[in-house]
Amino acid sequence: MSKPPLQLPVIQNWGCHNCGGCCREHLIEITEDEKRRIEKQGWTAADGVSMARPVIQQIARNRYRLAHQDDGACVFLDERGLCRIHAKFGEPAKPLACRVYPYAVHPAGPQELTVSLRFSCPSVVQNLGPSIASQTAALGQLSREIVAGKHRDHDPPLIHDVPPHGIQQGHWPDFHRFLTALDDGVADDSVDLVVRLMRILAWLELVEQSQFKTIRGAKLDDFLSLVTGAAVKAQPDNDLPIHRPNRMSRIMFRLLAAQYARHDTEALVRGGIRTRVSLLNAALRFTTGLGHVPTLHESASVSRVFGDSSAGDLTKASHAVRFSDLESHYGGRRRDIDELLTRYLRVKIQGIHFCGPAQFQTSLLDGFRGLTLMYPIVMWLARLRAARRGAKQLDLADVQASLATADHNYGYSPALGTRSALNRVSLLSPMKQLTSLLSWYSQ
Length: 443
Ligand code: SF4
What we know:
This protein folds into 2 domains: about 5-145, no CATH class; about 155-443, no CATH class. It has helices spanning about 20-25, 30-40, 85-90, 95-100, 120-125, 135-145, 170-185, 195-210, 215-235, 245-260, 265-270, 270-290, 300-305, 335-350, 365-390, 395-410, 420-430, 435-440, and strands spanning about 5, 30, 55-60, 65, 105-110, 110-115. Helices cover about 45% and strands about 5% of the residues. The radius of gyration is 22 Å and the shape is globular. The chain has about 450 residues and is mainly alpha-helical. The protein has a 3-stranded mixed beta sheet. The longest helix has 25 residues, at about 365-390. Iron/sulfur cluster binds near residues 66, 74 and 98. Iron/sulfur cluster binds near residues 74 and 83.
């Protein structure tokens, strides 16, 4: 199975549309070389850069990041939403973290890399810009810079933490066989996306229980075709049984949704004790699920690009949404929503952005379950957005905005990488609650 050294998600387009969101919503850590380079650039107030505080902050021993303006924007962002480093010295003079976003590059085999994208970028969510395939040369150069001097051959992520007897772990060609089966399963649009996800969860469970002596190479292909075929037979069409998730899984789900909805900006980090108390208060309300849903702040770029849901202002009674309001039908199983979320899932699968080093070292099985959980989380957040304007039907923009919000944290929020957060995800599966959450919030 020969593969090009750099695999690209050819189903995706992207180009920067200067929304400035990444320069307002991300904390940019820089290397010591980049620190020296920026210091040599000799920024002064005459360039429009505030000298009220140093442009570079030390956050730990040998760790630095760019300072922020009072409104949370990067110290180098100008009034038009453009980067002053880029304008004065050109794109290569910017920190690598700025140049890489919204790409994410992961190991895909011996001396091979694969590219995924972060859907926190509104242009990625909307599939705007030239095809990724047309950016091969630029991405090749960027990838070389990312791995420069530190590339080593990684083992593939584990298939399962407790390996099914006989399935070979640590073998890239077999790992890619699993990826292909997942990707094919998600791409099969003969049924609704939620049905495809149910089928995949069913065959992953068969993999988990398998007791074969050795399964690898062509035998693994046969085995995967057998289990995927069995899963299709078990759920042949869109006639899904709908079960309300039980109380315990609803609590775990709400807590995870709250983590995915968090938007920790520089301003929030600086917020102090009052901010921490209000976050604790919100966590308690998410646990009980009673009364009104606490304030959730969308990022400025998400509100600007996808329309303002007034998500941050719950002081007006007309915007108050009760947790119970989010449990009815919102007309969610629609082709346009399915297409968006299918593209999202396929980019994450092809870019190995759901397990291994990209996802707190989780195995392929647990990682895919976590990725599947993004479906009900995004749909729940989209319901909240729709409910805040009094709508009973989702707009595509509700789902796009919710996906951008949740993916900002997916694989990146340290709170989602804690043992308790990862346990919540793996506990939902054996309880059959992951499938209940999928079907319930697909309505
Ligand atoms: S250095 Fe430039 S590109 Fe990077 S965050 Fe600041 S303004 Fe944005």
